[in-house]
Known about the structure:
Layout: H1 3-20, E1 26-27, E2 30-31, H2 32-38, H3 52-59, H4 63-67, H5 73-77, H6 82-91
Antiparallel strand pairs: 1-2
Helix pairs in contact: 2-3
Amino acid sequence: MGSFNKLVMILVVAMLVFFEGSKALSFCNMSGDGLDACKPSVTNPNPSPPTELCCKDLSGADLDCLCGYKTSPELLLLGIDPDLAMGLPAKCGLTPPANC
């Protein structure tokens, strides 16, 4: 599969997860509901504090997996601020991976 096709596939999956809130889909061990709950906390111009649902779901997430997306242009396409996203674990009282 070419790199363009991979990019399209990643975008389609990410859009489904973020915009549909599907309970059947997950991303780095976060449920669609958890991703939806966290999105207002990582979106400018006025990010809100993370909700209990966001932090609960984030506590079970694969933080190394999520960290792998910190420089991904897909985040910007989805309206997610990478700096806010990288600071979210600390706001939930979680320790981010050392290499993140």
